[in-house]
What we know:
The protein has helices at about 5-25, 30, 45-50. By secondary structure, it is mainly alpha-helical. This is Glycine dehydrogenase (aminomethyl-transferring).
Amino acid sequence: PTETENKETLDMFIKAMKQIAKESDKNPEILKSAPHKTPVKRLDEVKAARDLILKYDFN
């Protein structure tokens, strides 16, 4: 990533990862229920793979 991102961006990413690690030590459930502030919560990929709903408009 150092070819495409500057040091400041990488430092911010490292800071965020350290904060996530601290929070997960205090409350492991917070990571299991993530994401929290997105329109779509955690996707059930197993259900999606088993119950395929395929639609394509051939016209």
